[in-house]
Q: What sequence folds into this?
């Protein structure tokens, strides 16, 4: 057994086909598996043709927002005489998310190829891959792959002999969660403090180094070669009923399941099937308590919502949460929800960039109230206060880190109020609040 | 900004503003201040304090008024329930880690946090957790950083980075642990660094010089002009019980924007001198005797009438146009040699703002003296003083060498704020007001004539120099009438084309043509 788990029948391996295959990391191994054919094809296409193909595939951003990728690329100006840049967001810092890591570790050339094609689509010559600082092993694998691609002539001033210049640079982050926010990422790449920028101007107008820039997630770009190889219609057909969510999605499942890991599913798979079949369900003797389906920034789901949920953008939204990054955190009945929410709030308080007042002060205040509740010193008025603070923290700041802190608090209080009240009434013994 | 005009409605008030105007400036034109902290018209806007969020019809979210340009036909609500609630929320957040040590804070009374909380904050805090604590830091020669009071608006960081172009300040740490940090190898000692104290909306960056000196509500502010150099920065003179305790920049976009240099800021101690000349002194044999103005003016008039030989006028850089012009008129029928003392220093530009620097010529009214033809060569004038029939010294502090020469003059009159003990042979010592005790006009290097107003009462019997000279001039021939006010005195000076003080307003006005085009 190579990759942590054998492909399960509920999975649809596209991006993950070669996960676990060491040879696929090498240039030769990747080419032997059909690699760089898509880039070769893209080099014969016009930018408009590439964009149209990706538009037709229905591919949407896999980083969390789910914005149609082809449409995003089409925002880039034409014939403006400025250098364009493609940024690949490989910062993957969202708690519970580790699906890009698998692409970086096992199929780095898929990403490099995706970057090169994306660059062609937006008339850029240079791509930057901003990789999470803690991803040491993936970084070394990715950098080795980039070096190999240059050596093989797939990248460089004459990519694949096309006469076109295609450069890919890998830049390591320094550990800040906020640098995964697209404009903070650009500031960080430029050597500045990783603070999000005010939008407008949007990156397509003024992004990296003030030039038109598109920023895409790793998984998004890695899907592009497959779309070019196998056609937009094939990709659009990867869908279980909802034509707005097409293709496959890597879901990194962690927490209280029998087999945590990164699973590739067709959009629209029932969430129950993913958790109970692919991941093997709950640990013995345990029942499901809650699921955070798309990274820690999205609303928490109850078991009833999970049962009714299909795993795609609209399906999860219909159950009051978001697909987000696809970082799924599964919690069984042994979980102290209040404590978990406190831990999430503390994470956001730690990672707030400190620019906006609401976020800087709100995340800290929220955390201290939650810590106090968990210590057994909560007051009856605390829940209303937390809800009001959350309102003051939502939709009022430059980026959505503040909103992301408020989301689990609000959904937690709404859906698991009894757990909070148990602490407030003293029915539940105080927990030890670690530092 | 283009000249195209857009119409927007702000809290029901329609205004026409140029395309590209940010909402916060458009609101000002409608007479509405949108509460704000990080925004400052002389700095780039980061939109981080989130105080200026306003509601715009047909827009889904509140928008920051400081960075959002108006669009034609927009209907903006600064005081809608949603905007008010958002502001209240921000104020509550700002206060949770703020120490509320207003009783011992220098900023109290002129604190934007106090003001806006008073206007629109909650009556009491819901915050019961511990507050963040950081020690006070010594940032520079005159600046302390009280981190606990800091609301991280980053005006100081942006001033040092974008205006002074010496980026020594930064935001250190993240989340609510953040504070303003300083480059460990540097100090906040840029020649214009003191402006961060004024820019700081709270009492976080404070002046050591002003520390615990006065409460803001005990201060009287007076519009004036800095006399430190030829730049002519507009200032406010703050006095407490008639003692000048602080100079602050007064905004003038044409001259100094919102800033003054540290040299100018510190240049106020002379205003409080206790050894002022307070009564006219008139020579009687070997001694000087105190007298009234009638006798003093009569003696001055007679001296000037009877003088034989050339006359020399030596003036200090703070002499107003009125003082210079009327002294010259009094002496004008004689062969007059006049010069203004111009101490020299180093030129210290602010950084990114063109035409704004502490100038090498440290003489406030040099251009005014030039326009009046009274700025001849100083050394030549001092040499001439030795052989002159009459020397008038107009509020100037002479060097020791110059004082020796001048003391040798045949006949000497001191029109001065402080009697010079080295000039003991003076025939008359006439106490005059300084520029902070009288109205007057100073002309800066760009020929901008700017008014100063009295910030404190004249000591003793001191009168404005123009009044003394004009009275003596009127007494020296029948039919002459002295001006009754400083404005009349200014209006009578041909060099300034008959402008009155009212014409100059409080931000001044460019007079005459370019300096090169004026015959001397």
A:
């Amino acid at each position: 057994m190579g990759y942590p788990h054998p492909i399960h029948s509920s999975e649809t391996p596209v991006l993950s086909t070669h996960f676990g295959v060491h040879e696929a990391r090498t240039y030769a191994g990747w080419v032997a598996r059909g690699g760089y054919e898509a880039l070769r094809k893209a080099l014969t296409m016009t930018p408009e043709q590439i964009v149209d193909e990706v538009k037709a595939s229905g591919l949407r951003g896999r980083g969390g927002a789910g914005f149609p990728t082809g449409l995003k690329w089409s925002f880039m100006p034409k014939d403006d005489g400025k250098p364009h840049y493609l940024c690949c967001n490989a910062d993957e810092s969202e708690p519970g998310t580790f699906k890009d890591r698998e692409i970086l570790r096992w199929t780095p050339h898929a990403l490099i190829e995706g970057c090169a094609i994306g660059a062609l689509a937006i008339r850029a010559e240079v791509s930057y891959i901003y990789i999470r600082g803690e991803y040491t092993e993936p970084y070394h694998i990715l950098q080795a792959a980039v070096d190999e691609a240059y050596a093989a002539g797939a990248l460089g001033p004459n990519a694949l002999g096309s006469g076109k210049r295609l450069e890919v640079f890998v830049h390591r982050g320094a550990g800040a969660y906020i640098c995964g926010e697209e404009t903070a990422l650009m500031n960080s790449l430029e050597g500045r403090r990783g603070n999000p920028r005010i939008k407008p101007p949007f990156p397509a107008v003024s992004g990296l180094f003030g030039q038109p820039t598109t920023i895409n997630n790793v998984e998004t770009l890695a899907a592009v070669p497959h779309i070019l190889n196998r056609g937009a219609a094939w990709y659009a057909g990867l869908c279980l009923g909802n034509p707005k969510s097409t293709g496959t999605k890597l879901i990194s499942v962690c927490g209280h399941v029998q087999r945590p890991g990164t699973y590739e599913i067709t959009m629209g798979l029932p969430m129950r099937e993913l958790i109970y079949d692919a991941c093997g369900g709950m640990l013995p003797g345990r029942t499901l308590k809650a699921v955070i389906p798309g990274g820690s920034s999205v609303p928490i789901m109850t078991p009833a919502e999970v049962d009714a949920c299909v795993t795609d953008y609209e399906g999860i939204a219909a159950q009051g949460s978001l697909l987000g990054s696809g970082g799924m955190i599964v919690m069984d009945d042994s979980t102290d929800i209040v404590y978990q929410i406190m831990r999430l709030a503390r994470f956001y308080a730690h990672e707030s960039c400190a620019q906006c007042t609401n976020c800087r002060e709100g995340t800290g205040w929220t955390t201290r109230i939650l810590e106090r509740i968990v210590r057994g010193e909560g007051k009856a008025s605390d829940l209303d206060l937390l809800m009001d603070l959350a309102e003051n923290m939502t939709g009022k700041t430059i980026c959505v880190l503040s909103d992301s802190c408020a989301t689990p608090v609000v959904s937690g209080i709404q859906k698991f109020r009894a757990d909070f009240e148990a602490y407030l009434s003293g029915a539940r013994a105080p927990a030890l609040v670690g530092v | 900004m283009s000249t195209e005009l857009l119409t927007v409605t702000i809290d029901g008030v329609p205004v026409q503003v140029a395309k590209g105007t940010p909402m916060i400036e458009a609101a000002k034109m409608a007479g509405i201040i949108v509460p704000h902290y990080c925004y400052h018209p002389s700095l780039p806007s980061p939109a981080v304090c989130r105080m200026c969020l306003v509601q715009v019809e047909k827009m889904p979210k509140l928008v920051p008024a400081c960075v959002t340009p108006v669009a034609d036909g927009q209907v903006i609500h600064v005081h809608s329930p949603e905007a008010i609630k958002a502001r209240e929320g921000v104020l509550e957040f700002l206060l949770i880690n703020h120490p509320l040590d207003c009783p011992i804070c220098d900023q109290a009374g002129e604190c934007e946090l106090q003001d806006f909380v008073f206007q629109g904050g909650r009556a009491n805090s819901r915050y019961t957790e511990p507050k963040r604590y950081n020690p006070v830091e010594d940032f520079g020669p005159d600046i302390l950083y009280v981190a606990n009071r800091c609301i991280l608006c980053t005006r100081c960081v942006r001033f040092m980075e974008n205006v002074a172009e010496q980026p020594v300040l930064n935001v250190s740490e993240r989340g609510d642990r953040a504070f303003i940090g300083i480059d460990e190898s540097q100090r906040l000692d840029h020649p214009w660094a003191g402006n961060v104290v004024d820019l700081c909306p709270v009492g976080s960056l404070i002046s050591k010089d002003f520390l615990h000196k006065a409460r803001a509500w005990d201060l009287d502010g007076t519009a004036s002009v800095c006399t430190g150099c030829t730049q002519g920065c507009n200032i406010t003179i703050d006095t407490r019980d008639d003692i000048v305790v602080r100079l602050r920049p007064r905004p003038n976009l044409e001259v100094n924007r919102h800033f003054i240099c540290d040299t100018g800021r510190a240049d106020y101690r002379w205003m409080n001198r206790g050894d002022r000349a307070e009564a006219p002194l008139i020579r009687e044999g070997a001694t000087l005797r105190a007298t009234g103005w009638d006798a003093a003016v009569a003696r001055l008039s007679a001296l000037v009438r009877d003088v034989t030989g050339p006359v020399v006028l030596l003036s200090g850089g703070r002499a107003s146009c009125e003082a210079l012009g009327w002294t010259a008129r009094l002496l004008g029928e004689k062969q007059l040699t006049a010069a203004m003392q111009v101490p020299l220093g180093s030129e210290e530009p602010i950084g990114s703002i063109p035409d704004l620097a502490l100038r090498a010529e440290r003489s406030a009214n040099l251009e005014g003296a030039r326009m009046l033809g009274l700025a001849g060569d100083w050394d030549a004038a001092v040499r001439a003083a030795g052989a002159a029939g009459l020397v008038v010294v107009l509020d100037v502090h002479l060097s020791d060498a110059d004082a020796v020469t001048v003391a040798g003059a045949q006949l000497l009159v001191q029109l001065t704020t402080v009697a010079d003990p080295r000039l003991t042979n003076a025939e008359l010592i006439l106490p005059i007001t300084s520029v902070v005790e009288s109205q007057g006009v100073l002309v800066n290097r760009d020929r901008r004539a700017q008014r100063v107003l009295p910030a404190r009462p004249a000591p003793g019997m001191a009168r404005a120099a123009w009044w003394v000279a004009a009275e003596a001039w009127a007494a020296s021939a029948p039919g002459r009438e002295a001006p009754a006010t400083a404005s009349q005195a200014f209006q009578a000076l041909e060099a300034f084309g008959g402008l009155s003080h009212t014409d100059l307003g409080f931000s001044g006005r460019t007079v005459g043509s370019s300096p090169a085009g004026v015959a001397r």
User: Anything to note?
Assistant: The mean pLDDT of chain A is 96. The first strand of chain A starts at residue 85 and ends at 90.
